[in-house]
Amino acid sequence: MLGLPKPLHPLISLFDNTSKKIDYSNITDLRTSAFYKISYKSNLTGQIKYGQHHYDFDEGGLFFVSPNQITSNSDNNGDHSGYTLLIHPDFLLSYPLANKIKQYGFFSYSVDEALHLSDKERDTVISIFKNIDEELKSRIDDFSQDVMISLIETLLNYSNRFYKRQFITRKQVNNDLLQKMEKILEKAFEDENLAVQGIPTVQDLSNSLHLSPSYLSDMLRSLTGQNAQQHIQNKIIEKSKEKLSTSDLSISEIAYELGFEYSQSFSRLFKAKTGQSPVEFKARFNQKTSFNFAKMQPSTILFQTQPTLLFTKWQFPDQNCFITLQQWKNQLNIYCILAI
């Protein structure tokens, strides 16, 4: 159907269309595949949409598709030369790569988030494709699969490195996306309908930013060391601390206002992130311990009235004892009367 020869191996194939163009005209527009797909397309000129911006490129790109992912025939339009590697998951069985390959987030990126290669990076990738092609065409022996697995893993490791480089070179744009994401989260948690709409999800954020969830998380990790889900959780903790320290709402009411269906889920997250329960955190701002002035010497009282030792729970939230200036004045007046 594609005008290609019979594959050399039932579980792994490499198509080289640098010399022979693949005919996609007989393929349905939307389709899925049971294979991991890694494609390099040269002469891929045009624009790529990144967030809400478009960027010109003409250096070609590397694309990744995971098994059973829906792809479009429009992705293959144009006169592109390059290589396409198809790997069935069964080919990786009994090798650590069978699990490790699932950790490469770029298999879930969209076409608009392709890896754009420099000339040097392109040469590295093409040399690996050629080595895989030579290995497939060679006589099969006891080491053939080991060698091909090693080459595939090398290709993936280089791709991971090159994507990190791409994140770095687009750092300014990524920082703009980070700030926009923070504004989206802030608006969501200030919304009066949060209790009804529920906590924003990674999918919600990625839709708003026009990025795939995997790309968003990897981009954030390159900037902050945390993925998208962790950013959402951080915002939950920030808002919950505000409510716990400034309102008389119960833990259940606060959990509901923050979009939690069950207060236990909120309490578990808060404890995991802060090391203390919401009840313990709230108690720090409600507890006041009175002093026994009857046992204090006059010199001690005078010393304790120095301005530097008069503090409030807002200035020093880690203190266990708080006393207001008016309480000091009242106690001092009583002590002075008794002394006279």
What attributes characterize this protein structure?
340 residues, Jelly Rolls, 9 strands, alpha+beta, Arc Repressor Mutant, subunit A
Account of the protein in words:
The chain has helices spanning 97-100, 119-137, 144-169, 171-190, 194-197, 202-209, 213-224, 228-246, 251-257, 263-274, 278-283, 298-304, 325-339; strands spanning 12-16, 30-31, 36-42, 46-50, 53-57, 61-65, 71-72, 81-87, 115-116. The protein has 340 residues and is of the alpha+beta class. The termini are far apart.
Write a concise synopsis of the structure shown.
The protein is of the alpha+beta class and 340 residues long. The protein has helices at 97-100, 119-137, 144-169, 171-190, 194-197, 202-209, 213-224, 228-246, 251-257, 263-274, 278-283, 298-304, 325-339, and strands at 12-16, 30-31, 36-42, 46-50, 53-57, 61-65, 71-72, 81-87, 115-116.
Calculate the mean pLDDT score and round it: 78
Structural class: alpha+beta
Reported for the largest beta sheet, the result is: 5 strands, antiparallel
Counted up, domains total 3
Strand element count: 9
Radius of gyration: 31 Å
In the CATH hierarchy, the third-tier topology of the largest domain is known as: Jelly Rolls
Poorly predicted sequence stretches spanning 5 or more consecutive residues:
46-57, 73-78, 298-316, 334-340
